[in-house]
Amino acid sequence: MAVVTDILEWLQALPQPALVGATGALVFAECTIGLGFIAPGESGLLVAATTANTAPRFLILWAVVAVCAILGDSLGYAIGRKFGPRLRETKLIQKYGTDAWDKATDVLHRRGAWAVFFARFLPVIRTLTPAAAGTSGLEFRKFLPAATAGAISWSLLHISLGAALGEAAKRIESLISTGGLIVVGVLAAVAVFFLLRWKKNAMGKLEQRTMDPDAE
Questions:
Q1: Taking the mean position of all CA atoms in its chain, how far away is CA 178?
Q2: 3-class DSSP assignment, residue 74
Q3: In terms of Cα–Cα distance, which of 119, 125, 34 is closest to 75?
Q4: CA-CA distance, 119 to 107, in Å (whole number)?
Q5: Is 36 left (phi over 0), alpha (psi -120 to 50) or beta?
Q6: Fewer CB within 10 Å, N- or C-terminus of the chain?
Q7: Cα(201)–Cα(63) distance, rounded to whole angstroms?
């Protein structure tokens, strides 16, 4: 049974405004301080992106997700400006993200707006960086361009990846009648493995640069 194809066709049958709106809401929630630990914005985006099989769908999803990410980052920044260092002592950050908060703050002090851009591609740190930027005193006129560039690049990358995976899954199941789902599962596992490995290496380099002030 072509389970993957059935799921993708079901997603594609959803009203596009509802699908795009829900995805944008998840991304907005993930980008706001603390909610990234709960709202699976990145996962939801990848799933929604499997339905972006036409140019209009792709462009609309990209525009909505990018705008929601920028708005979420801006709200996180505003929260950081309002509450300052006290955010680090909140229960949510103490439980889930103290190390990430410290890394984000340290890199922001050293790299400024560049840290905002690159943090967009790192899990957990992505959620905390906007608020940490507001707390650190980084000017909004420097924060916003970096957050915008990061949101546009990040959303384009993940939508392209999701669209490609969706199309690949359909083609594989159309070519393989027996064991197709297993093949799709293996390919998906391999893709996830390399994606997690890349993110782990990126976080390791970020930590190394944080600990070594002279590293470039």
A1: 35
A2: helix
A3: 34
A4: 10
A5: alpha
A6: C
A7: 29
Residue type, 107: V
Residue tagged 């782990």 (tokens): 200
> What does the DSSP assignment read for 148-214?
HHHHHHHHHHHHHHHHHHHHHHHHHHHH-SSSHHHHHHHHHHHHHHHHHHHHHHHHHHHHHHHH-TT
Helix H or strand E encompassing 95: helix 91-96
What's the CA gap between 30 and 47, in Å, rounded? Answer: 15
Contacts of 41 (CB under 8 A, 6+ apart): 26, 27, 28, 29, 30, 31
The low-confidence residues of the chain, meaning pLDDT below 70, are: 1-14, 33-41, 92, 94-97, 168-216
Please identify which residue in the block is written with the tokens 């740190």: 125
Tokens at residue 5, please?
A: 């194809």
Is the C-alpha dihedral spanning 116, 117, 120, 122 positive or negative?
A: negative
Tokens of 82: 């309002």
How far apart, in whole angstroms, are the C-alpha atoms of residue 11 and residue 13? 5
Place of tokens 């190390």: 99
Tokens 């650190």 sit on residue: 136
pTM metric for this prediction:
0.71
